[in-house]
Structure formats: structure tokens, C-alpha cells
Amino acid sequence: MPPGKKTGRNMAYYGEEHVERLLLVRKLQHERFLPLKAIKAVLDGKAGRFAPEQRQILREIKDRLAERSLRGPERVRTLDALSVCKQHGVPIEDLERMAGIGLVALIEDGGKQRIAEDDAWIVEHWARIRALGFTEALGFSVDHLRMYEEAVTTLFEREKELMLARIATLSAERAAAMLEQVLPVIHSFVARYHAAQVRNFFAAME
């Protein structure tokens, strides 16, 4: 939230814009299940990083992606967080820590914590990592996932700037089609380049 207007040593005035921003944060939390870190990134962009014409293009692309089923529903489906953890043998504390570092959002609903159905794969993957021997006893914790969150977030921020600088000359339909087609290629490139980095590291060992 932006700071309020100070009216005293321990008092500040918060106007209608603060109320609107708070309501939007709550909406993104409870309907889209976005972590607060992701919400801040969204709102920072909404607040002025994009020119009006860029925002218009993004809105049009968003509509085209919705038609192609890439954007997802306005309100996400959720699962009971404790049940998800039990299913994969992951302590609820690990999931709560994932929420703490911004990987997932956990929302209280009727006395229970809920997680977006689309985020359950993160718990599953963490369980698989644990099962392969990367345990607390060896010093591996949820906090080590932070470097991947930071790396992917940084990558996406740079991608966003690169794409926006170039798609402004395209129609929304064309831009949406290109994004739909290129995403699987980029995902494959990142995964294979990561594997190549590991191979190259060990190949250089004597």
C-alpha cells in the first residue's frame, strides 16, 4: 500500500485510492490466489510502468488468450491445503514456508487453509525432491526454492520488457498467437539449457 498522508505523529489519512487498492489486493488474493509478492509486481506495473497504449494492447492480448484458454478462469478452483500436503507426504509447515517466500498463496476459508488447484504441483514436486534424498537432515529446505523463484521472476521481468517493446506494432490476435506458440519452445529451451549447464560443469572437472 502507498503511504497515507500524515496528520499527526501516529496518525495518517488514507483516501479512496487506498481503499480501491486494498480491495484489489483482496480480490487478487481470494479470487486469483496470487501471493503478495506477485500482487505487488502486478500493481507496480499497473501503476505506471506501462504506457496507456501498452496497457491497451495487454488488455486486448489478455482477451485473445482467454479465448484460447491460456488465461484461465476469473476465479480459480481451490483445494484444502492440509489434504494436499497429506496426499504427498509434505509437512504443512513446508507449504506455509512456500507461502512465506512467495511461491504460493494460502488463504484462510472457514477455518481451513486453501491453495489454488493449479499450485498443487509445487507441493508434489517438493515431495519428489524430498523422496530423492534432498532432506532437512542434509541441509535442504523449502528456502532453497527461493533461488528458483527469484531466477524465474527475473527472467519473466526481462521477457516482459523485451516482448512489450516489440509487439506494439502487431495486432492483438497476432501477438496472442505468437505467445501461445512460443511459450512451449521457450520452456523447453530453459530446461535443456539448464541441463547443459550441469553437464558442462562436470565435463570441465578433472
Feature tags:
three-stranded antiparallel β-sheet; 206 residues; two-stranded antiparallel ribbon; globular; single chain; mainly alpha
Note down, in words, how this protein is organized.
The protein has 206 residues and is mostly helical. It starts with a strand and ends with a helix. The longest helix has 32 residues. Strand 1 and strand 2 form a beta hairpin. It has a three-stranded antiparallel sheet. Strands 1-2 form a two-stranded antiparallel ribbon. The chain has one domain. The mean pLDDT is 82.
Count of helix runs: 8
Low-confidence stretches: none
Q: What is the distance, rounded to the nearest whole angstrom, between the alpha carbons of the first and last residues?
A: 53 Å
Strand share of the residues?
A: 5-15%
Overall form = globular
Averaged pLDDT = 82
Quick rundown:
The protein has 206 residues and is mainly alpha-helical.
SSE diagram, text form:
Blueprint: E1 5-8, E2 11-13, H1 16-30, H2 36-49, H3 52-67, E3 78-80, H4 81-88, H5 92-100, E4 106-109, E5 112-116, H6 120-131, H7 146-167, H8 172-203
